[in-house]
């Protein structure tokens, strides 16, 4: 598929997504990836609590002008991607837009695995985030209390991927750049929820 075709498909899907209101219990935030609109269940309380606690831990460690936030879409029409990371670390100035944020502005993205669609974080986003130029990607999985930090983007054969990966378990402290996330503060999902 050519870049022009991918952009055209993406723009059509983006237009549809802007005029579509998903029924409950689906989230009002949709993503676009691989030529499809991706609808998600509204996040569970512990999902949002984990994101909030990570945001709160990161914020005081960040230098002036850099923020951690739990809101904001990222978009790359050329790659046909509209994503909404659970926690974004980026320059505050990059949020000064009426459109989605450029993923190239991100210093890190954190995804809290959803019980309803874990493949989105472990497969699709793991494949796309290095192509979007996001230097650090952390997957937090409250289902089993594990995390995986990916970084060091390498390009080969016209594609990009993370070449470094370190797994963690809840209770570990994860270092990303100069920032530390204490996973001992993150909630686990109940066994019955997944």
TrEMBL record:
Signal peptide: none
UniProt xrefs under Pfam families: Uma2 (PF05685)
Domain called Putative restriction endonuclease: residue spans: 27-150
Gene3D superfamilies xref list: tt1808, chain A
Name of the protein in its database record: Putative restriction endonuclease domain-containing protein
Organism the protein comes from: Streptomyces thioluteus
